[in-house]
Amino acid sequence: MDTPVREILDLLVRWTHVIAGIMWIGNSLLFNWLDRVLTKEDTRYPQSFGKTWLLHSGAFYEVEKTLLPPGKVPSPLHWFMFQNLTTWVSGVSLLILVYYMGGAAYMIDPQVARISPGVAVAVGVATLVGGWLVYDLLWRSPLGRRPPVASAVSLALLVGLTYGLAQVLSGRAAYIHVGALLGTLMTGNVWLYIVPSQRGLVAATRAGQPQDPALSQRAKLRSIHNNYMTFPVIFIMISNHYPGTYASQLNWLILTVLMVASALVRHGMNMRFTRRGWLPATFAVGLLGAALAWALMARPWGATAAAVGPVSFAEVQRIIDRRCVACHSAQPTDPLFTAPPRGLVLTSPEQIKAYADKIKLQVVEVKAMPLGNRTGMTDDERAVIARWLAAGAPLE
Ligand code: HEC
User: Fold this and answer.
1) Ligand 1 pocket residue status of 370, Cβ below 6 Å
2) Could you tell me if the CB of 225 is within 6 A of ligand 1?
3) Whole-number Cα distances in Å, 273 to 5, 17, 37, 231
4) Is the sign of the CA dihedral 91, 93, 96, 99 positive or negative?
5) Average pLDDT in the 183-188 region?
6) Is 371 within 8 Å of 170 (Cβ atoms)?
7) Residue 2: which pLDDT band, with cuts at 50, 70 and 90?
8) Which atom of ligand 1 lies closest to the CA of 361?
9) pLDDT digits (tens, 9 = 90+) for 24-55
10) Rounded distance between C-alpha atoms, residue 6 and residue 54, angstroms
11) What's the average model confidence in pLDDT over 134-140?
12) CA dihedral in degrees (337, 339, 343, 347; nearest 10)?
């Protein structure tokens, strides 16, 4: 596909993805919150769970959660499922557009493993399909009736997968595939458990029969899983802006810390209405997770040591000409790009100097650049750049 066409598609699909994601997760957070603020006072229906009042956009809303007497299904009745589907479909489309097409350039990092584009894509697809099958079977198996054990096994498998992906794919591709898998699990839960349970509830109400409790229990469990996956998934969605996380040699551990800490923060937000002290505990866990991740990020293991000794700028510029400007110039020669990525042009000394800090991060510390090392930069060249930066990035 033409690069400009891909870029426009990328923009439109990403825009859709973010809007649908905000609507889906926003609703999910709102309903979770609503469930916790309902009170039994002044309810109207015999099978009521409780009600509450909301103030928004200049008026009052009365909301009551209830089961209904037989035979009566109100109309119109609003379901919430297409926000989820739109988010997932646009997310998978983005995965294909950004990661699988264009020779899977973002998926391969020769520092991590020298694999072919075909293998990289196969690993990605297998992660999503296999991940759902393993998760679903685990929770359908007898183990699934013991949620604490099944949760521990699920977490161990997820950490194992995160570690494994980080050994074959580039850091950012490993991250995005863990996120895409969590999004796929959430979508499977919505369409294969939660929506059927709601269909059952509507049918049972219409027929005047009780809803099959097994159906609603399973749906409830899957809905709780989704609740805990929201914060980790949102971190992973934005993670590609933070090479300090995904491009570290300990990237799998950083992701694990952030996933566990953010799920615990979600737990604190769930519990804060029922038990005192949860809110401060939540903040504490969040801070602890952030501090731990920061400590790990601050140690990019692969960092190139800056040997001492002078380096001439001419030498630095020669390296950048050879290794960077194929992409980072006004008219890139690398067929992947028709415009300089991130608008970053490294053809003049002033531009190179102005971006010294970012170059340090990308080239010396996390080594995310050159992208997939497509231009074959050597460690010696990185050391020269490191030395130049350590000397204060002089222009002579
Ligand atoms: C094969 C193409 C390619 C090559 C070669 C390449 N880059 Fe990049 N560079 C990219 C892409 C793509 C991005 C944007 C990555 C993203 O979206 O996260 C990027 C981003 C960057 C950024 C981050 C810019 C920002 O705003 O945060 C820096 C700095 C950078 N590159 C420096 C370099 C340097 C220095 C070299 C040479 C040693 C280099 N790049 C070689 C493709 C390339």
Assistant:
1) yes
2) no
3) 49, 32, 8, 19
4) negative
5) 98
6) no
7) low
8) 29
9) 999 999 998 998 899 999 999 988 999 999 99
10) 44
11) 97
12) 90
